[in-house]
Specification:
Elements (H helix, E strand, L loop, with lengths): L4 H7 L24 E4 L7 E15 L1 H7 L13 E4 L7 E4 L6 E4 L5 E2 L2 H9 L4 E5 H10 L3 E3 L8 E9 L6 H13 L4
Parallel strand pairs: 3-6, 3-7
Antiparallel strand pairs: 1-9, 2-7, 2-8, 2-9, 4-5
Length: 190
């Protein structure tokens, strides 16, 4: 989303952007936030939501890590690797991988637990271990060869919905409507 902000600003120069990046679930009312981006299932709440897209989750590692530790060939091989995971509240340490009997959760551990996707991406790029994250987040790294997708034959095809959430009481401010419409138009996930 951040690379799109200059375009939004050019289209709507009167709107001031106040961006706070966190993977924590923000209390929109208490934090006086106009729009939050939420990944995964939405909780039942008084908030309104607009779907921005869906993204597949993939396993990735840096070539340097794979040269040092070897390439896992099966999900069971992950037990001998450094798996980098998330620690925020809505996360769990199971990675869902596909197999002959369908998707199966697999508990993983490793030397680093982080609270946001960009930190995980940077740690994986630095060769610290194997990560699992949304494809849209690392697509350019995979396409350039900076990261390698692992175990594609065991992809569970787990999809994560992404929504813009906002307060639904009363009339929506024009700045909020403009920002959400812009995101729907410009963001692409898969």
């Amino acid at each position: 989303m951040v690379p799109l902000l200059p375009e939004f600003r050019a289209r709507f120069p009167a709107v001031t952007l106040d961006v706070a990046l966190t993977d924590e679930v923000v209390d929109i009312l208490a934090e006086r936030t106009d729009v939050a981006i939420r990944h995964g299932p939405l909780r039942d709440s008084g908030l309104q939501a607009r779907k921005l897209g869906v993204s597949r989750r993939i396993l990735i590692a840096a070539p340097a890590y794979l040269e040092r530790r070897g390439v896992p060939r099966t999900p069971a091989d992950l037990a001998g690797h450094d798996c980098l995971t998330f620690n925020y509240r809505r996360s769990f340490t199971d990675w869902v991988l596909g197999g002959p009997d369908g998707p199966k959760p697999m508990q993983v551990t490793g030397p680093l637990v982080v609270n946001n996707g960009e930190t995980l991406r940077q740690a994986v790029l630095a060769g610290m271990g194997i990560g699992r994250t949304a494809l849209y987040h690392v697509r350019a790294d995979v396409e350039s060869g900076r990261l390698v997708e692992l175990l594609p034959d065991h992809d569970s095809r787990e999809m994560e919905e992404i929504h813009a959430v906002f307060l639904g009481r009363g009339t929506m401010p024009a700045r909020v409507r403009a920002f959400i419409d812009f995101l729907v138009d410009r963001l692409r996930f898969d």
